[in-house]
Amino acid sequence: MAEFLHQRRRYLLAAAAALVLLLLAARFILPAGTTSPAAPLPPTPAPGVGAAGPSARVVVDVVGAVRRPGLYRLPHGARIADAVARAGGALGKADLAQVNLAAPLADGEQVVVPRRGAAGSAAGAGGSGGPAAPAQPVQLSTATLEQLDSLPGVGPATAQKILDYRTKHGAFSSVDELDAVPGIGPKRLEQLRTLVVP
Length: 198
Description:
The structure is a single chain. This protein is an alpha/beta fold. Among the domains are: 54-123, Ubiquitin-like (UB roll), CATH 3.10.20; 133-198, DNA polymerase, domain 1, CATH 1.10.150. Helix content is 34%, strand content 11%. It has a three-stranded mixed sheet with strand order 2-1-3, covered by helices on one side. The longest helix is centred in the N-terminal third of the chain and has 28 residues, at 2-29. The protein is elongated and about 100 Å long. The protein starts with a helix and ends with a strand.
């Protein structure tokens, strides 16, 4: 029994010595300051979040064929689908094919959910051979290529340039930003001013 206690004491001393040697080796091998865990870096804001931070909110006005039209506060990065859902969802007579539900929301934007047949009947009543002006203003921040192409004087190439501009610079905050899109000059901008909203 005495031999067992003596051997156990030897193992404990050897383990303690090994631990001390490990700590000393770590102290001299590792550079100073790395023995304690480093403080975590602050999260990098996502592109487009800006100085407001990721907790920023946007306020949007949801109108048209939704259950509860009104102003809604949503988190930054929310999509049009989130705004429609917050407004109680679309009504049965809503024409969601005219709305880009995946488009990101911009602060101060108005989300219009049209009723089925509203835009189609107005376009059909035009009767002229050229493209008819849209029944409702086209939202530059959410419009599809087809919706932009339906604007007078805007063909598929210019519509694509508007989409490219929106992808690069984010949602439109003013109709005047169209002047920065290649192919749209001051004259075309004045022609479109009453037909589009940011």
